[in-house]
Amino acid sequence: MFISNLQVTVLQTFAKYKDQFNIELGGEHGRTALHFAAIHDHDICAKILITDLGAELKRACNNGYYPIHEAAKNASSRTMEVFFQWGESKGCSRDSMISLYDNEGNVPLHSAVHGGDIKAVELCLKSGAKISTQQYDLSTPVHLACVQGALEIVKLMFTMQPTEKMSPLRCEVRPSGHRELPHN
């Protein structure tokens, strides 16, 4: 998506007066400016928000989504990369960022699969996300991709993590309908 020079200039101007307003103030559903930058893949704006204005990456909106989940869900791979690079510069590994759960038990890979963008899925996998990671309901990213009929995403996950591919397939369905990994 096109980012106008005006948007960048406005944020840079805001940075000069950052002590006079609350960058974490959320709008509808508690989404902050960083959530919106993530949703719309405004990577340059996201970088200004976190580096110059101090926007918090670990601030969930009222729906329980963090900016990294919004970026993954909305195929905002450029903004995801900004988040990863900034986190690494502050001593936060990609692995810990990619393992952050939202209130529904999604890690960013689950969100990327929901969004259906193969680039976002690939970035999550390259950043250390595991295809065997389960949501609170025990669904894995593989389960979600299969339900969506996203064969290319399933192929990508199995190709990039061949040693993990059997884990999501070994889940048992209990009479209550809940999946559970078998006990060895």
Description of the structure:
The chain is mainly alpha-helical and 184 residues long. It has a domain of 127 residues: Ankyrin repeat-containing domain (Serine Threonine Protein Phosphatase 5, Tetratricopeptide repeat, Alpha Horseshoe). It is built from ten helices and two strands; from the N terminus they run ααααααααααββ. The protein has a two-stranded antiparallel ribbon with strand order 1-2. The longest helix has 13 residues. It is elongated. The relative contact order is 0.10. It holds the Pfam family Ank_2. InterPro entries: Ankyrin_rpt, Ankyrin_rpt-contain_sf. Keywords: ANK repeat, Repeat.
Keywords:
disordered C terminus, Serine Threonine Protein Phosphatase 5, Tetratricopeptide repeat, two-stranded antiparallel ribbon, 10 helices, elongated, 184 residues, 2 strands, mainly alpha, single chain
